[in-house]
Structures are given as C-alpha cells and as structure tokens.
Design brief:
transmembrane, single chain, 16 strands, transmembrane helix, extended
C-alpha cells in the first residue's frame, strides 16, 4: 500500500461537508471508475463523431493519448453509450427504466412555487423561446439521465464511494486547498426544471489558508463555485456567520441537479442574462436612469450592463438530502491528490468529460477537466486560484501591515516628486505672469500676449491638477498609516465589505405565491399572445385601442399578483402626466412660446425698475 501524499492530511483537515437535496441521484465520485465506464469519441470539423475507444477499455493512463487528434478536433467521453448496453438489454427497456427513475426523482423532490411568478412577462417569453430552442439545438438525449443513473448505480454497487480530487496550490503567500468535486451527470433540466442536462460535472470548493506568525496555517477565506457569481462575490471570510462549519469543515449546500454550491440552504433564483445590443442598452440605461433618479419612480429588473432579458431558473439547495463528510450520512474516501506536476490524465486530456452535444450555447455540452476550458485554453481557476476568487488584491494577514506601510512610503516618494514638479511649474507660471503683465497694453505685442495668456491657462491647469494629486496622496498616506495601526491592534475589515452581490435564497415572502398567482405566471404569456393575435385578426379597425386596453389589463393583473400595484399606479400617473404635457406642448406650441417671451420681458422690466428705485 502506497504512503499517503504529503498534502493529503492538510486537505482532509478542511475537507467540506456536502449537504445535498432530496431527490438528487448523483454524488461526487472518483474519476477512475467513471473513465472505465466511458467510451472515447472524437468529433472532427465537418464529420460525424467517431468512437475511438469502446466502453470498458479506457483507463486514466490511456485517456491522455487522444487518438485521431487534429486541428479543430473535439475529443469527448460518453458515459451513456447505447452500444455498450448490458447483454439482453434494449433501448426501449432503457428508456422505460429511465422514465421510471425520473418519476422516482420527481416523487422524492417537490419543486418550489414561483419560478415564473418571480419574473416579468419578457423573462417568461424569453424562457419559452429558450425552451423551444432545445428542439433545434444540440442537447443531451432525454433518456441520458436515466441511463447515467443506471450506470452510476452499477458502479456504486461494485464499490460505493464518495470522493473528491484535491490540489494544494501555493500562490502569493496563500495556501489554496482546491477540492474538485466530480459528478457523473448534471440532470438539472430533466430532474429539477433547470437550464440544462450534461454528462459530467466538475464543481469546486476552495479554502484559503494563510501562515500565522508562529508558522501555523490558518483558514482565512472560502470560495464556492456557483451560477452567476465571480471574483469577490464567490468568497466569504472564514469568520463570516454565513459560513457554516462542522469543526474545521465548511458546509456546502449543493443544488439539486446543477450541483452549484451555496453557503445557506434555500431556493436560489438563477437567471441567464441576455444583454441588449450596446447602442440600445445605452438608450435604455439613460431612460431608466431618468425615470428612477429624476422622477423617483420604481424600476424593475435589469442591470447596469444592459441585461434586461432574463431566463429564470431555480437552484434548489435545500440541504435535506444525503450529507457527505464530517458527521454526515457518508464519509469521504481518501482523496485523489492532484500533485505537482499534475498527472497526465489532468494535463494531457484536453477534451470534454462527457457528451459533446454541439450546443451553440454550450449548456448541454460536457465540461472540460480541472485545467482546461471547453476551448482547450487553461482555466484561470487552475493557473490563478487566488485571482479567481478576487484575492489577488488582498494581502495575507501577516503581510497586511507591511503592504500598507510600503504603499505609504511609495506615496511619500511620489509626493516629494510632486512637490518638486509643482515648485518648478509654479515658478514658470509666475514668470509667465510677469511676461503677460509686461506686454499688456503694447499693441505691437498683442499676438505674443495672447499666446502667453494661453500658456498661462494651460500651465495653471497642470499645476492645479498636480496640487490636487498631492493633496489626495497626503490624505491616502494618512489613511494607510491609520489602517496599519488598526491592523496591528487586531481590528479587521468588515466581514462582508468586499461583497457587491451576495448569494441570497428566496425569502418566505417571495416563496409565498398563491396558486392563482402561480397559475397566472404559467398561462399569462400564452394568453397574451393569443389575445394579440385575435385582436389583429378580428379587431383591425380598433387595433391600437384594443392593444392598449389589453396591455393595460395584463400590466395591472401582473402588478396585482406581484404586489406592485401601488408602484404601477404611481408610475402610470407620472407617465400619463408626461404624455399630457407633450400633447399640450404640441397643440399650443406657439401660444406657449409667446407666453414665455412675455413672462421673460415682464420679469426683465420689473428687475430693471427695481434697480432704478435703489
């Protein structure tokens, strides 16, 4: 038996506790039995997929060989290959068992209310279009989830195990414990009403350790991979109350099907944002800004990047299912440690770890491995795990005081340079002022005087800018010194000061949609389209008025169900007032111009007469 890897003890000390959701059928496993159950395929440009290694013949040692490689080729694994069905099995029987497995999942899992009721009409319409595109674009076959569950069950019957792949990276003073969690299948769409299905799923949990003055490694941060979050918003400080722990083991709430990781149990609304074209986005941003800031009116969904169309999905991370890890239902197996240099199955295989569905949105395509993106470039999470979580700008606690004081010293050096430059340019400015005074009133030097005054204006602006920089640097230097003093006495930054958009599960209020509201959300888009078509066919002579009435009806119905009727009424009043003002301006334009001129002339006359009486 081989000796444990030197990093294994450190990884096991902080290994996460996974709290899964009831109904989930796939859990983290070692890649070796998965690869042995897979076949290897290659897709070349313009050709059909070719199986290069049959199922049962592939190993981690042979995986990096990638037969028939070439420009534009995509290698991928197949965990569920109809050619590798067990003896005596048929595709029809497979589909029947897959359907039975899906029914069992749905019986164990109950979707929460309010997915469509939490977003507006546009998002529901885009959601319908997104679902329709599944019929045309590449996707994982319907029976794939059931077949994957059967294969996974067979693997677990041979040897039940729950494993992660651990890597210890050391970067910029941080010791990063990377826990790579490999799931054989993502059944978010078919099992839990999510966005996609795909074979294989690599998820990750990071723990960031820093060395104390005594040389001990102490956890400072954790970061969980999840949908729609990046950088600073991924991570939480170790002492953040949101980070639940069992001893030194951070607790991860795993979303059903998608396997995204969250800090707290609940239902998370995840949105696929579809941005507007840039010119249109600028116009919409300006209009929304005027409506919100100038008129003080309510503004609904949308964000500053112009993503006003959203496809809503829900991540169910309830934590009511299997618990893996310290104190849980199942214990972790010894991890597969990814040492440095990384083994060939990590570095040498650049293909996808499951079916290549050729989905243009890539949502149904399997992911690449820990090192690579789908396009075979090296992923940032591998080569820069510190920057991946936004920690590249954060010094370790041991370096924080030194970093602050060194930056203060840099600013002091720059301030000396600024003072010298200011003195030099200020002296030059005074000389030019003397020259301007000397040529003033000399007609033969008018041209020179104008040029001197122009140079004075330019130089004065430069000196003013330099003095502003000097004043700012002096203020920052003082703040840095004060900050270093606070750190030395043990003060820390606000625990959540770095977060701009936090993971937030749906509140009880948001989940408390009535059955009527849920039914309305389900039928509203279809009903609206049917009514619009009916108006276009049967009410052409009253088309505009009927469309306005219909839109008003749907707007008020939606606002009532979403609890925003007061906002809508207020906004409608402001909007109608603005429209009425424009109509009056159009109808009585010249009368208003004459009235404005008369008012201005009377004011000027009154002001002048008042001055005469003084």
């Amino acid at each position: 038996m081989s000796a444990p890897h030197p990093d294994e003890a450190l990884l096991r000390r902080f290994e996460p506790v996974l709290r899964c959701t009831k109904g989930d059928r796939f859990f983290p496993m070692d890649v070796d039995p998965y690869v042995r159950a897979c076949s290897l395929w290659v897709q070349r440009p313009g050709g059909e997929p070719v199986r290069v290694v049959p199922g049962g013949e592939l190993t981690l040692e042979t995986l990096p060989q990638q037969p028939l490689d070439g420009s534009g080729a995509v290698h991928f694994l197949k965990f569920t290959d109809p050619r590798d069905l067990p003896a005596g099995s048929s595709l029809a029987a497979l589909r029947e068992r897959a359907a039975r497995g899906l029914r069992e999942t749905r019986e164990a899992f109950r979707a929460g209310r309010g997915r469509l009721a939490r977003v507006g009409y546009l998002s529901r319409f885009v959601d319908a279009l997104y679902s329709i595109t599944l019929l045309a674009r590449g996707r994982v076959p319907g029976e794939a989830a059931g077949a994957a569950a059967m294969t996974y069950r067979r693997v677990m019957e041979e040897r039940e195990g729950y494993s992660y792949h651990g890597r210890v990276a050391r970067q910029e003073g941080w010791t990063v414990l990377q826990y790579w969690l490999f799931y054989p299948f993502n059944d978010w769409r078919s099992g839990f009403f999510g966005a996609n299905d795909h074979e294989a799923d690599w998820e990750k949990v990071h723990v960031y350790l820093a060395e104390t003055e005594g040389g001990e490694l102490r956890p400072e941060w954790v970061a969980y991979a999840s949908h729609n979050y990046a950088g600073d918003n991924l991570r939480r400080r170790w002492d953040d109350p949101e980070v639940e722990k069992v001893g030194d083991h951070p607790v991860v709430y795993v979303a059903a099907g998608s396997h995204a990781s969250y800090y707290a149990p609940g239902e998370y609304l995840t949105e696929l944002n579809l941005p507007l074209p840039r010119p249109l986005a600028r116009v919409v941003r300006g209009a929304r800004g005027f409506w919100r800031e100038r008129l003080g009116q309510y503004v609904g969904g949308g964000n500053e990047s112009g993503g006003y169309f959203h496809v809503p999905f829900v991540d169910y991370a309830r934590g009511d299912g299997l618990v893996i890890g310290e104190g849980g239902d199942r214990a972790w197996d010894p991890p597969r440690v990814i040492s440095e240099p990384a083994p060939p199955w990590v570095t040498g295989y650049r293909g996808l770890w499951g079916l290549y569905a050729r989905d243009p949105f890539e949502g149904e395509d399997a992911p690449a491995g820990p090192i690579y993106n789908r396009d075979k470039t090296v992923a940032r999470v591998w080569y820069d795990p510190v920057g991946w979580a936004g920690l590249d700008k954060v010094p370790t606690p041991a370096e924080a005081v030194t970093a602050a004081l060194e930056r203060r010293d840099e600013l002091e050096t720059r301030r000396e340079e600024l003072r010298a430059e200011i003195e030099k340019k200020a002296r030059r400015l005074r000389k030019l002022g003397a020259e301007a005074a000397a040529v003033r009133g000399r007609s033969h030097l008018d041209g020179r005087g104008r040029e001197t005054r122009r140079r004075i204006a330019e130089l004065s602006r430069e000196v003013d800018g330099l003095r502003a920089r000097l004043a700012a640097d002096e203020a920052v230097s003082g703040s840095l010194e004060e900050y270093a003093g606070r750190i030395e006495v043990g003060e820390r930054d606000p625990v959540r000061g770095h977060i701009t958009r936090a993971h937030r599960p749906a509140s009880e209020t948001e989940l408390r949609f009535s059955r009527v509201a849920e039914a309305w959300a389900a039928v509203s888009v279809s009903l609206m389209l049917v009514i619009f078509v009916a108006i276009a066919i049967f009410q052409q002579e009253h088309l505009i008025s009927m469309l306005v009435v219909s839109i008003a009806f749907f707007a008020f119905a939606e606002a009532g169900f979403r609890g925003r009727l007061a906002n809508l009424v207020g906004s409608a009043n402001i909007g109608l007032a603005a429209v009425a003002s424009l109509i009056l301006l159009y109808e009585f334009f010249w009368q208003l111009v004459v009235a404005a001129v008369l008012v201005v002339s009377l004011y000027v006359l009154w002001d002048n007469l008042r001055e005469l009486r003084r």
